[in-house]
Amino acid sequence: LFRQLCLRRWSSCKAPQVVLGTQTWKQYYLCRSELEFRMESGRPEDFICKAIAGHEGEIDELAYISTNEYRFDGREKSVVCTVSSDCTVRAWDLHEGTEIWSSPLQPAALVNLVTYPRLQLVVTVDERGLIKVWEAENGQEWASFCLPMYSSALEACDCLDGPFLMAACAGGDLYTLTVPHLQVISKVNAFRNNHLNLLCSPDKHWVFVSTQNSDLGPKVFYTHSLIHPSEDEPPISTTLPIWLSSRACWAPDEAARLMVMHRNDNGMQLVVTTYELGAKKFRDQVNIVAQQIASFLLPDTMMAPHLMKGHGSQVMLLVSGSELVLFTMHGLQLAAFQDHQRPITAMWVDPSRVITSSFDLSLRVYVWNKENKFPVLKSCYHLLGGSHRWASGFTHVESDSMSIVGVEARGIGTSILRSYYFRVHHG
After folding, report:
1. DSSP 8-state code for residue 335
2. Which of 170, 180, 189, 222 is least surrounded, with the fewest CB atoms within 10 Å of its CB?
3. Among candidates 379, 365, 361, 261, which has minimal Cα distance to 51?
4. Which residues form the signal peptide (predicted)?
């Protein structure tokens, strides 16, 4: 009975998740139902809030190293890693509110990181372009590789072809490296002397490479050709017929659906164009086909969005100032929220909820209702940070199945983590 209830309510539910430890289908159903109720309600008794300090500089990036599985066998744990201008990478237990480990001081400030939860590995890069792999359990250094210039982007890929890392160099080169040994698989110059933005598709078969507000059209690379390079042929790519691209996102439920925000032909208006990508083989040649399937103009009254995320197969979320707006890929506006008093700084989107962080020192939690033709987003509650006397706002937000964590910037040039760990009774 409870197995059928689980599979009916949560289509992503898999048997291996449920039989971990001592949990049964009934325990899983009751615990997950309680957890989702508490995450939607957000009452003070639903979660434990902790302020977690330790870094002596600003936290530039954070990512979960714990897997996002729903497990209720008493061994579930939410762990995040952070990098900071204080030249360290650290791991934190959000439930206990404690530091698990801290790396030795590094030669330069660490500016970015990505994680491989399945492998329990963390990859960091400093402001000079030095990339390092760390063991998530104890902080031991595994390998390093130095880019010729500082890095503009990192993307972690863990797929059927194995784990690999994509690193964009400020000179316009795109490196593909093995994980964990950081050996070069391929190197390609995507845009000469330009900073690159990287965005891998949900299935990791495609990587979108762009330069901010450039008249150079963004490119899409076929990932297989980057991790299996040919000595005779360059990696397979195509240039999209648009210019001055500023933001992009993939539709999570469609492996090859890409939504790109850019300027129209006269450069005056913002447009969102959606492409469906495919690889066609003709004789021994593989070509990328990018078919435009939708396009619409953003309203003139809307300030240029600075954040963009996808949901489902055809919904995008755009953040403009302190406003969150939902559109379909054909331009139908589904909702607009103005819950924050100051600009939104970050946005987390997953199949269950949306969380925004703001300089008003609050996190806003929204929940999806998928019973309609298009998903409906319901605004639920705020999670408040510390005192405005000491803090200047939230700069980042992330979430997993059990917790929400934000980076709270302090006025003295430091940051702390503020975690919200949701309670579940295992009885």
Report:
1. E
2. 189
3. 361
4. none
Q: Locate tokens 């919904």: which residue?
A: 315
The Cα 374–Cα 312 span in angstroms is 9
4: Cβ–Cβ under 8 A, 6 or more apart, which residues?
none
Quote the Cα angle for 392-395-399, to 5°: 130
Would you state the pLDDT for residue 246? Answer: 85
Angle between helices 2-9 and 25-41 in degrees, nearest 10? 40
pTM: 0.93
Cα–Cα distance between 328 and 335 in angstroms, integer? Answer: 10
Q: Which two tokens stand for residue 271?
A: 């447009």
Query: Quick count: other Cβ atoms within 10 Å of Cβ 111?
Result: 20
Give 365's strand partners. 355, 381
CA 407, 201, 111, 141 torsion-angle sign: positive
* Residue 71 to residues 145, 305, 367, Cα–Cα distance (Å): 36, 37, 21
Q: Specify the pLDDT at position 14.
A: 59
In this predicted structure, the answer to whether residue 68 has a pLDDT above a threshold of 80 is no
Residue for token pair 């390998």: 143
d(CA 76, CA 49): 17
DSSP 179: T
Task: Express each pLDDT in 137-147 by its tens digit.
Answer: 999 999 999 99
Output the pLDDT for position 427. Answer: 54
Encode pLDDT of 4-28 as tens digits: 888 888 876 655 555 545 578 888 8
